[in-house]
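We close this part of the discussion by returning to an individual protein. The amino acid sequence and the backbone structure tokens for this protein are reproduced below:
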Amino acid sequence: MQPQYPHFEPYNLSPLDHHLPPMHLTFFLTFKPEDTTQALSTLESGLSKLLFSLPFLTGNVARVSQARGVRQLQPAVPALLDQYPMLKVKYHQKIYLPTSPSQSSEANKMSYDDVFIPLPLDHASNELSPAFRLQANVMEDGLILCATMHHTVMDGKGLTNVLEALSLCCQNVHTGARLVPFTTPAEQEAGRKHILEAGLNTKPSTPTQPDVSSKVIKTSVPLIPEVPITRRLVISNDKLGQLRDMCGSFGNDRIELSRNDIFAAVMWLCFMRARESTSPDPTDAKRKSTMMTVSDTRGIMRPALSDNYMGNAYSALITESPLCQNVYANPSPNSPVGQMQDVIDGIKTTDIKSVAQLAIAIRRDRNALDDEYIRTEIADVVHKTDWQPTFLEQCDYGQSSLRKFGLYDMDFGPLMGKISDFDIPDGRLSRIAWDLPARYANAPWELRIGLEPKVMENLRMDPLFRWVEAK
């Protein structure tokens, strides 16, 4: 029998929660406690405190209106809690923690399947599907905690907020001090109300309105692919800074580029070239390539959403660039023409120019994301007769950044400790990448990406990628 958690009133998910079709996403958190049994006891007690403070985490996503596609979070169902408890503990004999990100990448020991995660991969489309679950995987030399969220209930920042609240609860198990809530159900309700009212009080966009170059993407969940593979790549922070400085001579002085812009541009360019070299098509020279980037809108809305808000609060933007400008204008590195190109500090000037152009396009679109844009985006959902996510445009490549989320700073108390490794080894989403959280200030950039094997091989052999890759 599962514990009796406090009741909460059902509530409709916000318009921003309706951007995504039903799907679960799992964070893999590695711990190296001295005593796994005591660490599990801390985790169980901390989770209990968390769920009694925020009982909506025990709830299930359900569709309440077939006609309008509106989804709701409803109280926990005992039978579903028995089948899928809030915390499942599983022991794995003769399986050890990866010793490095590269080992995790190549050996793929932590597979994104039903063995390690708390819910079946296809459970999100069920009539009732849990919003949040944990599975503690006890390895021979440590603990991997898999935290699964229903993506229509929270985004990556939201799940990070849940984990930070859990870490505080685990600390409290040992201190015995009065637990100060990280957030409250009332604060979360206020956030959803703010989002809904922003849409109700804003006129939706129309086809006659001028559009920024970025577009919101709402897409269906892809089938679990049989071909793509997922790898974790590590990029030098110093090389990104060096490349940003180089791009200054090719770019726009009025647009200040960040390392994040440069990183996204590098990966987009290398992906374009890797895919085209895998299956070249002369007609592609006239086509545009599209990249999706994701921006957190909590601090952009006016008034701002609380940084502790756990629901979805992102905008997915599409940036376009001609393939001919970035792929077919650059000769093959092995061709006579390619070998004659000018080189600055080991990198071709044509590559620097392409990265600068792509980074500027990405930054312009990110700068266009303001309160008015977000409100119009919300209004487009609120004023629809059907809230179901609709496919508008498919991107060639997508990248979402978790780098600033601070997961490595979380302390789960003396018996669990801090997170020693973080990953999202999700092989279902081809051509989607996550910038993983920074381990420390100015740390190398870690990226988890899923691609077809040949495209992955070509990307890793690209001279530009090899130049920025951490050695």
Remarks:
- The first strand starts at residue 11 and ends at 12.
- Residues 104-109, 207-225, 335-340 have pLDDT under 50 and may be disordered.
- The chain has two domains: 11-200, 229-416+425-468.
- DSSP finds 13 helices and 17 strands in the chain.
